[in-house]
Amino acid sequence: MILTRKRRILAALLLSVVLLTTACTPKAPGRFDQVQQESSQQKSGQAVAKNATQGEKFNEFFPSAQAGYQSVYTQEKKGFAEAKLKKDGKDLAMLSISDTTSIPTAAAKFSNSTKKIGGYPAVEQGKTQTAVLVGKYQVKVLSRSPSFTASDRANWISKFNLDGLAKLK
């Protein structure tokens, strides 16, 4: 009886030692820990430049209401504003204005552009996107419906107040 009691005490003591040593051992770093630490310490490469235009200032340059069409603003943040273009309740396209100050490479794609919309350099991006560069601002229309063609996108870009946007500081 004494022997079993000593075994129980010894087992409990060993279990306590094992739990204590494993609980106090430092955790090995995970495969993403170093990258997370580096990215959170970076000052460059932040998502939005400090001098980017507030998204709310872009709203007045979006196309005004057209017969049969509805614009639903979906996002507005520093350096960016976006609206869905709908007709009969269906999404046709996404309309957006972004400040390229935050993404300098966004403006570079317009340097070799031979196409113009409203007097501003334009580019086709893939089969669903058309964009123009107005000063430091990119105006983009993305098709969300197969029936919304490149000519529809160019037409809707021309409905933006591009000249007014060019004067925005």
From TrEMBL:
Keywords: Signal. PROSITE patterns: PROKAR_LIPOPROTEIN. It comes from the Bacteria. The keyword Signal applies. Residues 1-23 form the signal peptide. This is Lipoprotein. It comes from Komarekiella delphini-convector SJRDD-AB1. The lineage of its organism: Bacteria, Bacillati, Cyanobacteriota, Cyanophyceae, Nostocales.
